[in-house]
Design a protein that fits this description.
The structure is a homodimer. The first copy, chain A, is α+β, with helices and mostly antiparallel strands. In chain A, 22% of the residues lie in helices and 43% in strands. Chain A is globular and about 50 Å long. The interface between A and B is large, with 46 and 46 residues.
Chain lengths: 129, 129
Amino acid sequence: MGANEDGKVVVRRFWAALDERDWAGAAATLAPEYVGVWPQSRERVVGREAFVAINEHYPGIWRITVERLAGEGDQAASRVSLTDHERGRTEVAVSFFTVRDGLIRHHEDWWPEPYDAPAWRSDWVEPMG
Amino acid sequence: MGANEDGKVVVRRFWAALDERDWAGAAATLAPEYVGVWPQSRERVVGREAFVAINEHYPGIWRITVERLAGEGDQAASRVSLTDHERGRTEVAVSFFTVRDGLIRHHEDWWPEPYDAPAWRSDWVEPMG
């Protein structure tokens, strides 16, 4: 956990710990002054203890796969898929992180949901495979 | 538009052109083999011409601000806000890009919508300012 460690490395460790339900391991990737936000619901999570409490209480057993990861230095962005195999559900989270001294200081998650393709653009799109 | 130009520079040019409704300028940041996807609606846009047609027909006049930008080399991620001042609406798009030889080859957009904060975690969150 070097001071100059790239943000992408820290973010990968963060998601791997959550995938393993290792809440302490995930919290160890967070700075003491950690702030996480869910802008869609206007919620803010302040500090490692609140982060762990939420994950302990989070409904469902979610396995997490990092699908995209981009960043440089202290900035990183990820797209992960989260699958609850018991309920047969998969969610997508897109996140931005600010890392300093090898720890996540700021984190925002976006949770997009499926929607119907609009008719007006149907002439210029194909269905995704 | 150098061959080794960082993906972030190209992505910034892409959004600036869309903000100015300069469809040709935006298309000039795309590779001939451009593919864009909207995974939530399972739509795929293939090629510059389809991209321009969609933007020409897109309902509303959207001003675009790049709020976050992360990436390195040929990978980049952005979060932009899009505001239709006439209708008083703001949307958020989170996107990942793959750039090669200074042109966008692959692009995915995610469009998250507001949702209600769930009650089960209310003890451990604060309202965002």
